[in-house]
């Protein structure tokens, strides 16, 4: 006996870029889409089989979103040290398991994790596959491969790149290939190369990138790279990587080569967009905010040209930082692709579904609503073609179906946050003589600076004590 779901009467956006179809139904059999169409009903469901009916009248039915850039083990880090040093890897793993449920709740039914601590991504992927963890379909990298000059060797040489870091330093082609083999042995789906943070130089040679790419491909694995500048993108294209992250600054020649290669580009605009546009809410200084916004404006020129040249652009958000918390902003990447890459709403949805499915690999045949595809479907109360931001409001994502199963969530629990341990702050600002006696101003501390164990209890107790003290005084 099969289990069936009929989602009827909605406006269907199938993810392929085809126009929306009104009053259209989707029939799901077990974990697979059986039929999509205006004439689809329950006639083909055998008598006696169980059928769930979802009335989607006035709503939009579309494939679940896919996020090519979701760092499951970053823990909403405010600082690099939080990602690399604090919080045990056992606790990081548990937090990651909790965070991927938030991602799924937001209508994101597929993610690719381009690197993080230890092999936490592999564990989370397996936990999801085994049904221990409620989370999206997932592929994952291990630690970023970096040189002394790449994106994860931040600390002084006297400290080095600790085992707990999100990166692994490899400085010769031999070390790089060995690390690729080591990570594949430990279950990664893809390799993540961390070239220079801002793309202004090359942390790896073209030959080294080619060596890693060949090593990954010989083992039937994928490989991607953090690449912000033309030279980085050129090397990534020459080495035939499977997709590329960022691409903020690209010459016309680079764009042409990228377009010819048909390698997808995941710009990950969200991190910059949130820091630039919403950073004030988190105390990001004005100068930094405008720098992020300027960078986005500059990126827009390249992305528009890339889109016009035919580069496949896919959604990735860099979720996992404090600026990009789990489950809150994945769908904002679509809004930003419309604003900064000139996409229509329909194109942005295609970028986030059909086109992005490539990062989930051949085992996951999803990303569009068509017979035979995996049944990852969301129902949205609103019209994302009229206002793409409808997808950002979780209250309007009325159904999340993964592998044919309607997901049940405890929104109350998922609304809580569990940041990793913070830096071990002793005092968040300078208590100078001038601050105390001459009216100078200190930086106002964030109470969470003292919240090193994610424990609000102490703060509550301190508040109570203070309240009691003020009562005593009056
Ligand atoms: Zn990232």
Give a topology summary.
Elements: E1 3-12, E2 21-29, E3 32-37, E4 50-55, E5 60-63, E6 65-67, H1 80-84, H2 89-105, E7 108-113, H3 120-130, E8 137-140, E9 144-146, E10 167-169, H4 173-185, E11 190-194, H5 206-218, E12 222-227, H6 230-238, E13 243-246, H7 252-261, E14 265-266, H8 270-278, H9 286-309, H10 332-341, H11 345-352, E15 377-380, E16 397-402, E17 405-406, H12 411-414, H13 433-437, H14 457-473
Parallel strand pairs: 1-4, 1-5, 6-7, 7-8, 9-10, 11-12, 12-13, 13-14
Antiparallel strand pairs: 1-2, 2-3, 5-15, 15-16, 16-17
Helix pairs in contact: 2-3, 4-5, 5-6, 6-7, 7-9, 8-9, 10-11
Residues 69, 71, 114, 318 line the site of zinc ion.
Keywords:
474 residues, binds zinc ion, 18% strand, alpha/beta, 4-stranded parallel β-sheet, TIM Barrel, 33% helix
Task: Tell me what the structure shows.
33% of the residues lie in helices and 18% in strands. The chain has 474 residues and is of the alpha/beta class. It folds into two domains: 298 residues, Metal-dependent hydrolases (TIM Barrel, Alpha-Beta Barrel), CATH 3.20.20.140; 41 residues, no CATH class. Strands 1, 2, 3, 4, 5, 15, 16 and 17 form an eight-stranded mixed sheet that branches. Strands 11-12-13-14 form a four-stranded parallel sheet. Strands 6-7-8 form a three-stranded parallel sheet. The longest helix is centred in the middle third of the chain and has 24 residues. The protein is globular, with a radius of gyration of 23 Å. It binds zinc ion.
